[in-house]
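Appendix B. One record, verbatim.
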Amino acid sequence: MFGLFHRSSAISADQLKVEKNSQTKILDVRMPGEYRSGHIPGAKNVPLNRIEGYTGNKDEKVYVICQSGMRSKQAASILKKKGYDVVNIRGGMTQWNGPVRGGK
């Protein structure tokens, strides 16, 4: 069933804008300062160094985002191994042009 690699699915920031609704679970895996400087409304800040301890509903799809897509890819891999249905946002916040909360 599973090979050596737990490949997570990935979508673009534009696809996230289409799929996102009030129930969408988004984890922002950047550091708290980066998160405060501007994040997707409703996204929960769970820095990559704490993702191992994340406990959420494994029946819900979880979207992970960071600044560029590298940390979220790592986070997606970790969450996938823990049994979560996880989707990485390619390009991260650099590609997001939807609403942002926080920042200047």
